[in-house]
UniProtKB/TrEMBL annotation:
Family: Belongs to the aldehyde dehydrogenase family.
CDD domains membership: ALDH_KGSADH-YcbD
Keywords, comma-separated and alphabetical: Oxidoreductase
Gene3D superfamilies: Aldehyde Dehydrogenase, Chain A, domain 1, Aldehyde Dehydrogenase, Chain A, domain 2
Name of the protein in its database record: Aldehyde dehydrogenase family protein
Length: 479
């Protein structure tokens, strides 16, 4: 019988009234497990448990907090192969990428274990004589965390770890498509020494569990990663209920390739940015902006490199690109292939549905040329292995094209010109910028986030995470 996985509420494993099957997108007959769907009463109980745990946890010793987070990180790192395999199985990224993501999650818990001991304040003189001023940071309260399917262990980790490190209690709702990694983290947390109720897991649909979480009066703040449309809804609910909110959303990230780029390096960067992890990264580049002088050579080299990519079962040795994560995402990707063609773009390679030994959502990475900035394929986030090339005259036109988007998460430039690299770093309108590196694939100890329609609220990750997960207090004392 398939193993059933329960929700973690107030330190207890609580059965669901209903369960969803977690199915591998590489092999639709591979059922990873059944995962409980929380109902309204369970969500309420989780929030209540978190509220009850908050006074002691938020004022308790930082050594205990540090030790628990460190222990969680150690266990994730020790189980990297097993967790990476679970991740690859449920989400469809390759085993190497799954293991890499598990390592990232372990390192994130370790990093925030250290942060428990480093939360500093300030003392300043008052403008009034005989008064001292202290500025300190306190936890926000009970934080609701809502995560997407594409980074099933790293994103829960980079929200949960700082939340706990800075003394908050948590109610986590992971994506219904990939509950396995969040459940595994919850199980590790449940044995870490963290008191009951401090961390709660409620799995289920966004329209049910997520919706109730964002509107719940017992929740003080929401940290969300996902699509722009759901993000806007989350922001509205939070504004209406005066909750603190942090949103990380999509991207339409540009990758500029200049005439003076190292061609081989530029092609590798573009292939990695656009197609690795099946293009299902908010930092993926789906607009390749290429200047005239290198254009023809670049397209030829891209076609050659793309033809050699192996699309297959995520767990198979030698696979470069796994399946698309779900039927609905595959339909969305395929619909953009049709949209691009109907807009007049040329599909130079890929875009076909592929058959493999196992039945899964396989698709050949696709490249469009002859595209214009106004086309929907250059304006809307596809979130799959589909990229388009925009041909431009020179660096100035490339920069203008790069910034011609309502998104602003990551941007890249391939060039050997120090002058253009420095100018691009300063003038691209994005939260992250990469020089001769893929737009995707970031460090875990520095800020992550974007501008324009990509992000809303304070940055995530690194020390900057304290902006969202703490609230500032200014104290005046008469000497
Ligand atoms: N900038 C960033 O850091 C990142 C952005 N993304 C973006 O996420 C998208 C893909 O992820 P995807 O999971 O499909 O995104 P969605 O926005 O569909 O879902 C994100 C999360 O929100 C939940 N949700 C859905 N509806 C509601 C609601 N009404 N109220 C509260 N929660 C809700 C989902 O639940 P469920 O699905 O379980 O029903 C899921 O847990 C892409 O657009 C991508 O760019 C992804 C990763 C990182
Ligand atoms: O590029 C990365 O390493 C992180 C990307 C990410 O968080 C995402 O796509 O959801």
């Amino acid at each position: 019988m398939t193993k059933q996985h329960e929700n973690l509420i107030g330190g207890e494993w609580v059965a669901g009234n209903a369960y969803t099957k977690n199915i591998s997108p590489s092999n639709l007959s591979d059922v990873i497990g059944e995962y409980a769907q929380a109902d309204a009463a369970q969500l309420d109980a989780a929030v209540q448990a978190a509220r009850a745990a908050f006074p002691a946890w938020s004022t308790g010793g930082i050594q205990a907090r540090h030790d628990a987070l460190d222990k969680i990180g150690t266990e994730i790192l020790a189980r990297r192969e097993e967790l990476g395999r679970l991740l690859a199985r449920e989400e469809g990224k390759t085993l190497a990428d799954g293991i890499g993501e598990a390592v990232r999650a372990g390192n994130i818990f370790k990093f925030f274990a250290g942060e428990c001991l480093r939360l500093a304040g300030e003392t300043l003189p008052s403008v009034r004589p005989g008064i001292g001023v202290e500025v300190t940071r306190e936890p926000v309260g009970v934080v609701g965390i809502i995560t997407p399917w594409n980074f099933p262990i790293a994103i829960p980790a980079w929200k949960v770890a700082p939340a706990l490190a800075y003394g908050n209690c948590v109610v986590l709702k992971p994506a219904d498509l990939v509950p396995g990694c969040s459940w595994a983290i919850a199980e590790i947390i449940s044995r870490s020494g963290i008191p009951a109720g401090v961390f709660n897991l409620v799995m289920g649909r966004g329209s049910v569990v997520g919706e109730r979480l964002i509107n719940h009066p017992g929740i003080d703040a929401i940290s969300f990663t996902g699509s722009q449309s759901v993000g806007a809804r989350v922001a509205q609910a939070c504004a209406q209920n005066l909750k603190k909110v942090q949103l990380e959303m999509g991207g339409k990230n540009p990758q500029v390739v200049l005439d003076d780029a190292d061609l081989k390096q530029a092609v590798e960067i573009c292939v990695q940015s656009a197609f690795f992890q099946t293009g299902q990264r908010c930092t993926a580049s789906s607009r390749l902006i290429v200047t005239d002088g290198i254009y023809t050579k670049f397209i030829e080299a891209m076609k050659e490199r793309m033809a050699a990519l192996k699309v297959d079962d995520a767990l198979k040795a030698g696979t470069d690109i796994g399946p698309v994560s779900s039927q609905s995402q595959l339909e969305q990707d395929m619909s953009y292939i049709e949209i691009g063609q109907s807009e007049g773009a040329t599909l130079v390679i890929g875009g076909d549905r592929l058959k493999r030994e196992t039945e899964g959502f396989y698709m050949a990475p696709a490249l469009f040329t002859d595209t214009t900035a106004a086309m929907r394929i250059n304006r809307e986030e596809i979130f799959g292995p589909v990229a388009s090339v925009i041909r431009v005259k020179d660096y100035e036109a490339a920069l203008a094209a790069a910034n011609d988007t309502t998104f602003g998460l990551s941007a890249g430039i391939a060039t050997t010109s120090l002058k253009h690299a420095a100018h691009f770093k300063r003038h691209c309108q994005s939260g992250m910028v990469m020089v001769n590196l893929p737009t995707a694939g970031v460090d875990y100890h520095v800020p992550f986030g974007g501008r324009k329609g990509s992000s809303y609220g304070p940055r995530e990750q690194g020390r900057y995470a304290q902006e969202f997960f703490t609230t500032v207090k200014t104290a005046y004392t008469l000497a």
